[in-house]
């Protein structure tokens, strides 16, 4: 617990996961009670219809904003209808980003050609709408980064969410201009290079997230994840960087608000 507000920069507050609207309301209330005062719920990853479900949650909660996108898992559904729905969602002032979008060659739930086409089209849409981009990247051997560079994505802001890619790739991403979000995996006993990564991300590019409902941090691993638990990730990252929890909270919340273009909200925090 810290008096300095924390931000969960990436969660999926889908009513279908959390027991309907009432369940989401309880999760948001617990987050606020734990000092997690700013939330971005991601309208992607749970089928096309989660775009509007995320939007509805953000409209009901003054401290929740949303992103809209098509996850690489769902890339096979890309087409004019989805584009129209993304444009409609993006016209809502509560929409602060497009995504998560990207490539996932670990699960390959959509054909790779469909994933590539869907990513390229969404980068173009984000550039046209002047919205930051939230990236999902898994086992693509740098192809996601090359695509972002080829399509000019770094003229705007780009966030690698749930980053688990190691130190060498981190250096390439930082050089390209990416922002990096550290998930609860950093608290696990077998966290690979992630603790070293969390210590190495430049201070002005570092964010934290839960990716709720999955990837619950220690000591609650195995339970359903929710934004209140980002406190445990914050404590771990603070220790790794030699900061106090309030210092880490101040840094990552300011970065999160800046990334999502919510600087004006910061002043009221
Ligand atoms: Zn993801
Ligand atoms: Zn996600």
Task: Give an account of the 3D structure.
This protein is an alpha/beta fold. The protein has a single domain (about 5-269), classed as Metal-dependent hydrolases (TIM Barrel, Alpha-Beta Barrel), CATH 3.20.20. It is about 40% helix and about 15% strand. The protein is built from 10 helices and 8 strands. The chain has helices spanning about 20-35, 50-60, 80-90, 110-130, 145-150, 165-175, 195-200, 230-240, 245-260, 265-269; strands at about 5-10, 35-45, 65-70, 95-105, 135-140, 160, 180, 205-210. The protein has an 8-stranded parallel sheet with strand order 1-2-3-4-5-6-7-8. The radius of gyration is 17 Å and the shape is globular. The protein starts with 5 loop residues before the first strand and ends with a helix. The mean pLDDT is about 95. The structure holds zinc ion (2 copies). One zinc ion (ZN) binds next to loops.
Topology:
Layout: E1 6-11, H1 20-33, E2 36-43, H2 50-60, E3 64-68, H3 80-90, E4 95-104, H4 112-129, E5 133-138, H5 143-150, E6 158-160, H6 167-176, E7 179-182, H7 194-200, E8 206-208, H8 230-241, H9 245-259, H10 263-268
Parallel strand pairs: 1-2, 2-3, 3-4, 4-5, 5-6, 6-7, 7-8
Helix pairs in contact: 8-9
The site of one zinc ion has 4 residues, from loops.
Spans where pLDDT lies below 50 across 5 or more residues: none
Give helix % range: 40-55%
Small ligands present: zinc ion
Strand order of the largest sheet: 1-2-3-4-5-6-7-8
> What is the CATH H-level superfamily?
Metal-dependent hydrolases
CATH architecture classification name: Alpha-Beta Barrel
What overall geometry do the principal axes of the alpha carbons give?
Answer: globular
Number of domains: 1
Mind summarizing the main beta sheet?
8 strands, parallel
**Number of E strands:** 8
Our estimate of the beta-strand percent is 15-25%
Order of helices and strands: EHEHEHEHEHEHEHEHHH
Radius of gyration, in angstroms, nearest whole number: 17 Å
- CATH level 1 class label: Alpha Beta
Number of helices: 10
**Could you say what the CATH topology is called?**
TIM Barrel
């Amino acid at each position: 617990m810290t008096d300095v507000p924390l931000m969960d920069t990436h969660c999926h507050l889908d009513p279908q996961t959390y027991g309907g609207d009432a369940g989401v309301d309880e999760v948001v209330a617990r987050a606020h009670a734990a000092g997690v005062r700013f939330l971005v719920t991601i309208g992607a990853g749970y089928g096309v219809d989660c775009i509007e479900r995320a939007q509805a949650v953000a409209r009901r909660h003054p401290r929740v904003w949303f992103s809209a996108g098509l996850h690489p898992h769902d890339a096979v559904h890309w087409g004019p209808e989805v584009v129209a729905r993304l444009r409609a969602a993006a016209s809502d002032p509560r929409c602060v980003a497009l995504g998560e979008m990207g490539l996932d060659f670990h699960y390959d739930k959509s054909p790779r050609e469909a994933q590539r086409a869907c990513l390229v089209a969404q980068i173009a849409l984000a550039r046209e709408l002047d919205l930051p981009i939230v990236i999902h990247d898994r086992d693509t051997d740098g192809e996601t980064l090359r695509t972002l560079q080829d399509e000019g994505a770094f003229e705007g802001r780009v966030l690698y969410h749930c980053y688990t890619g190691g130190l060498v790739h981190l250096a390439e991403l930082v050089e390209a201009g990416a922002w990096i979000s550290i998930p609860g995996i950093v608290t696990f006993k077998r966290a690979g290079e992630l603790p070293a990564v969390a210590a190495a991300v430049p201070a002005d590019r570092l964010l934290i997230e839960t990716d709720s409902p999955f990837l619950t941090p220690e000591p609650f691993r195995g339970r359903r994840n929710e934004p209140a638990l980002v406190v445990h990730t914050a404590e771990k990252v603070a220790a790794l960087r030699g900061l106090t929890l309030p210092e880490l909270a101040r840094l990552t919340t300011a970065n999160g608000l800046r990334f999502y273009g919510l600087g004006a909200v910061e002043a009221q925090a």
